[in-house]
Write a structure and sequence with these properties.
The protein has about 375 residues and is an alpha/beta fold. It folds into 2 domains: about 120 residues, Rossmann fold; about 240 residues, Rossmann fold (3-Layer(aba) Sandwich), CATH 3.40.50.1100. The protein is about 45% helix and about 15% strand. The chain is built from 15 helices and 11 strands. The strands form 2 sheets. The chain has a 7-stranded mixed sheet, sandwiched between helices. A 4-stranded parallel sheet has the order 5-4-3-6, sandwiched between helices. The radius of gyration is 20 Å and the shape is globular.
Length: about 375
């Protein structure tokens, strides 16, 4: 890691870099909050926070901005230093954007299975890609390359929860509450986010506590991930030998930024149901969304079903994480889905029926796992 700042030249460069990032933020408008009409859930309003409209096309734009400001203010970046990140795609795209904004080279370390569209997007932003076979070696390889190039390893999985200003500064939670002010149910009953680093979920959980809101926070997890089991057991040594098939979320090990104590409930979603929900939601919106958004929608269904069972009215807000345009050769390719065991025509029909009727299809309800408050309510 670079040494602390020294000399006026280093300080001047850092201040100029921070100004560029803040100026870029001032040029950006907030992301839209989309209501999704679901007649089967009267009195329950569902909203999607559309993070795909960021300049780099995903929720990770917020994280990358926070990580760069955190690194700059801590004296970890200097003029000419190489920025290195371990990322399966979206974070790397966003970090490449900010690296180019401040004039630094960027290198992404990623699994070979990363979608060609994401690789192209990183390179479009001026970044370079370094591929590895073993997903678990991504961390050590990123640090090795940072040391080799005398650069800085951003380490999103450690710093995501602490780099974001969770009290204010237009973080995603504050933005949601501001945008909900004139809605029928302005204070959400549930906020729902899938977990990649865990940083977004940590921001949501901390913010509602800081503002003394009654809102509950639900984290959605992918099939090949340890977060759900860690939430239940608090075992920090959990480990998988393979990575998640839902790009951007789920981890094979417990990450430092995943904070179970600020989460009220979790839903673990089988991958085939995430993909099915992705396809159904895309049809209803008239545009493609990514598979992690499908994971969020299934978790939102679990929360809404619980509210309906209790006769509760209110609002539920979840995230549209990124655009499906990045997955034309994977989640939107029938051949790829068949080869991956994720062909989902029957599951999509069940998701559609659940959304329209307000009664969750039996096969869907039997597929997910719940923990925390939802598990208690459904016991």
């Amino acid at each position: 890691m670079p040494s602390a700042l020294s000399g006026g030249r280093d300080r001047s460069w850092v201040l100029a870099a921070i100004r560029r990032i803040e100026a870029d933020f001032q040029r950006s408008s907030d992301t839209h909050l989309i209501p999704l009409q679901l007649p089967g859930f009267p009195g329950i309003d569902l909203y999607l926070k559309d993070e795909s409209s960021h300049p780099t096309g995903s929720l990770k734009h917020r994280l990358a901005r926070s990580l760069f400001l955190y690194a700059l203010c801590n004296g970890w970046l200097r003029e000419g230093s190489t920025v290195v990140e371990a990322s399966s795609g979206s974070t790397a795209i966003s970090e490449a954007y900010f690296a180019r904004l401040v004039g630094l080279p960027f290198l992404a370390v990623m699994p070979e299975s990363t979608s060609p569209e994401k690789i192209a997007a990183i390179e479009f932003q001026g970044g370079r890609c370094h591929f590895i076979d073993d997903p678990m070696s991504i961390y050590g390889e990123a640090q090795r390359l940072a040391d080799k190039f005398d650069g800085h390893y951003m380490d999103q999985f450690t710093y995501a929860e602490r780099a974001t200003d969770w009290r204010a500064n237009n973080n995603i939670a504050e933005s949601i509450f501001q945008q909900m002010r004139l809605e029928q149910h302005p204070v959400p009953t549930w906020l729902i986010s899938s977990a990649g680093t865990g940083g977004t979920v940590a921001t949501l959980g901390r913010y509602v506590r800081y503002c003394a809101q009654p809102t509950r926070v639900c984290a959605a997890d992918a099939e090949l991930s340890v977060f759900f089991d860690h939430y239940r057991s608090r075992d920090p040594e959990l480990y998988l030998n393979e990575g998640s098939r839902i790009e951007g979320i789920g981890r094979p090990r417990v990450e430092a930024s995943f904070l179970p104590a600020v989460i009220d409930s979790m839903v673990k979603v089988p991958d085939v149901w995430s993909v099915a929900a992705m396809h159904e939601l895309s049809a209803r919106l008239g545009r493609r969304v990514g598979a992690s958004t499908g994971t969020n929608l299934i978790a939102a269904l679990a929360c809404m079903a619980d509210m309906r069972e209790r006769g509760a009215a209110g609002s539920v807000v979840t995230l549209l994480c990124d655009s499906g345009q990045r997955y034309a050769r994977s989640y939107y390719s029938e051949d790829w889905l068949k080869k991956s065991g994720l062909s989902c025509h029957g599951q999509r029909a069940a998701v559609a029926a659940s959304l329209d009727s307000g009664r969750v299809a039996a096969e869907l309800a039997a597929s997910w796992q719940t923990a925390g408050e939802l598990a208690v309510a459904q016991a």
